[in-house]
Amino acid sequence: QLQLVESGGGLVQPGGSLRLSCLASGFTSDYFAIGWFRQVPGKEREGVSCIVSSDESTYYADSVKGRFTISRDVAKKTVHLRMNSLKPEDTAVYYCALRRSWFCGPSLPYDYWGQGTQVTVSS
Is residue 23 within 8 Å of 4, Cβ to Cβ? Predict the structure, then answer.
């Protein structure tokens, strides 16, 4: 069955960069949307970004606009989140999620979730 696996998290200094990757395995369809979410313990989950496989339309939260870039490889069913100019406020567990749809957004339901990857921004 479908499995989402995140990778690329780690420890980085403020101003540094990381690239997160989300691989959707066991999924045969080329029509999907993948979103990135982040959560700090005790706080609400935040939608960070999402992308649609069909037309590459994207969404970014105001807090990451101009710093994060989402991209996708439909053939490999992989989505990347390039994070530049990282701030301590970006520290969180980052999750990717998939919905079988041509639409994406922070408030739409997602069908599958990964286990998350930790991003820590600290000096």
Answer: yes
